Amino acid sequence: MNTNCRMKRTNAVRQKDCDRVTHCRQDLWVPRSVSRRDFIRTSFGAAGALAVGACSLFESRSPAGTISFGILTDTHYADKDPGGERHYRDSIAKMRQCVEVFNKRNLPFAVELGDLVDAAPKKETELGFLKTISGHFSEFQGERHYVLGNHCVAAFTKEEFLGNCGTETPKGYYSFDCGGFHFVILDANFRGDGAPYAAGNFDWTDSNLSDRELVWLRNDLRAARDKRAVLFVHQNLHNETEMTGVKNGARVRRILEDAGNVRVVLQGHHHAGAHARINGIDYFTLRAMVEGPGVENNSFAVVTINEDNSIAIDGFGQQADRLLT
Ligand SMILES: [Zn+2]
Ligand SMILES: [Zn+2]
């Protein structure tokens, strides 16, 4: 049965073709014994270590020049009644379904693109929401990465939020390598005056990358110029004239275009989802998980970068499939 599951995953078939979770889990290749510190290169370059755990195994088992990983966004989990089309409680069932699919697909890592929780009357109550939804995400057997969204820091500081996610990369922005690709987590939660968002001290439409982050980003992409790069950010880098856009998005795009190795930017925040292509770089916004009742309105995706540089977005629930060529 294990062999059967492995063969089916190798053929990249859908979850229904390998529907016995317990059997599939027995041969998951992500070793629990591998320290996540081995996997991460921090934003400050201190560790400098490349993927020696999950990703090295991934490389040994996958065709060269391709990679698959999971993305989800805007779960807005809260134990409260729906507001409009936001069904806050249903995000638990949706997250569980998402993690089950990611585990069956044997993905090396998954990125949560921000707005993990929604508001509570008291900070300690919201902390409980955070621990609950992050606990469900932690059932994912690969590496978990958290992008900061504006709702993540409505009640918490960035350090408080990340410190309670159980991530071993409690940083707003950093990068890591996997499968011969370079991945960058960005933080657009800075005000126009440079102050970091913290405990609601911001206007959510005033989203920016900090000057320090921009310097780091330029240097990070230059150091990884021999690899194709994928960026993750909550707010949107393709539309600075709109409310959901990062206000210094044009500056950021120039850095990405100058680097020459950025293939795609994956985003959240705009709940309906979106796609734009600017100067050869795709900006894909994933539909929000919180929108609509029940798992039939779920939204998440498995992203595959193919050897020919095309990108397959394998959408689940209401997220449509896309092929970006
Ligand atoms: Zn949101
Ligand atoms: Zn948001």
Structure description:
- It is a single chain.
- The protein has 325 residues and is of the alpha/beta class.
- 25% of the residues lie in helices and 19% in strands.
- The protein is built from 8 helices and 12 strands.
- The strands form 2 sheets. It has a 6-stranded mixed sheet with strand order 3-2-1-10-11-12, covered by helices on one side.
- Helix 4 runs parallel beside helix 5.
- The longest helix is centred in the middle third of the chain and has 15 residues, at 123-137.
- The structure holds zinc ion (ZN) (2 copies).
- One zinc ion binds at residues 114-115, 149-151, 234, 269.
List keywords for this structure.
Purple Acid Phosphatase, chain A, domain 2, 6-stranded mixed sheet, single chain, binds zinc ion, 325 residues
Q: Which CATH class of the largest domain applies here?
A: Alpha Beta
Q: Note the main sheet.
A: 6 strands, mixed
Model regions low in confidence, pLDDT < 50 over at least 5 residues: 1-52
Give the termini distance in whole angstroms.
Answer: 36 Å
Number of helices: 8
Count of spatially separate domains? 2
What is the CATH third-level topology name of the largest domain?
Purple Acid Phosphatase, chain A, domain 2
As a percent range, the share of helical residues equals 10-25%
CATH architecture of the largest domain: 4-Layer Sandwich
Strand content: 15-25%
* SS-derived structural category: alpha/beta
Shape designation: globular
The ligands bound in this entry are: zinc ion
DSSP E strands, number: 12
**What is the string of helix and strand elements?**
HHHEHEHEHEEHEHEEEEEE
Gyration radius, in Å = 18 Å
Q: Strands of the biggest beta sheet: in what spatial order?
A: 3-2-1-10-11-12
- The average pLDDT is 85
**CATH superfamily caption of the largest domain:** Metallo-dependent phosphatases
